[in-house]
Amino acid sequence: MNKQTLAATSLAVGATAGLGSVASQPRITQWYSRLRKPAYVPPNGVFPIAWTSLYTDIAITSATAIDRLRSTGRRDEARRYIVALAANLILNAGWSWVFFKYNKLGASAVGAVVLAASSADLTRRTAAADPRAGAALLPYPLWCAFATAMSVHIWVLNRR
């Protein structure tokens, strides 16, 4: 794997994590703790572990896919992959702002649906470039689908 590609995807994913954290950290113990939540929502301590694992996975599998596409002469496909990755990471960080910073439960539920679809598309693109990397990225859309179910359910439970 090209170190520069991995550095670029790691930087992008790290920026996403940082931007999401800025929106959510101070709000978790206040507003979030007062929300009604379904019984299947994991304890707060699960989220940083899950997201750290997923962000690491995204950085590595995306670097692998981009390098594979470039090395096989599919430069246009590599560029489209990078655009899809950037869009996905923007949606990822944006969700935290909509949910935690602005407390927009309905909009965050819609955003979660879009993020889950984007994550599935990114996984599809990754698998097309490198099947093993695509398989390794599969937990990301699965987690996003679970997060979508949580977001929608929290919205339903807390509608006024």
UniProtKB/TrEMBL annotation:
<protein>
    <submittedName>
        <fullName>Tryptophan-rich sensory protein</fullName>
    </submittedName>
</protein>
<keyword id="KW-0812">Transmembrane</keyword>
<feature type="transmembrane region" description="Helical">
    <location>
        <begin position="135"/>
        <end position="156"/>
    </location>
</feature>
<keyword id="KW-1133">Transmembrane helix</keyword>
<dbReference type="GO" id="GO:0033013">
    <property type="term" value="P:tetrapyrrole metabolic process"/>
</dbReference>
<dbReference type="InterPro" id="IPR038330">
    <property type="entry name" value="TspO/MBR-related_sf"/>
</dbReference>
<dbReference type="Pfam" id="PF03073">
    <property type="entry name" value="TspO_MBR"/>
</dbReference>
<dbReference type="GO" id="GO:0016020">
    <property type="term" value="C:membrane"/>
</dbReference>
<keyword id="KW-0472">Membrane</keyword>
<dbReference type="InterPro" id="IPR004307">
    <property type="entry name" value="TspO_MBR"/>
</dbReference>
<feature type="transmembrane region" description="Helical">
    <location>
        <begin position="81"/>
        <end position="99"/>
    </location>
</feature>
<comment type="similarity">
    <text>Belongs to the TspO/BZRP family.</text>
</comment>
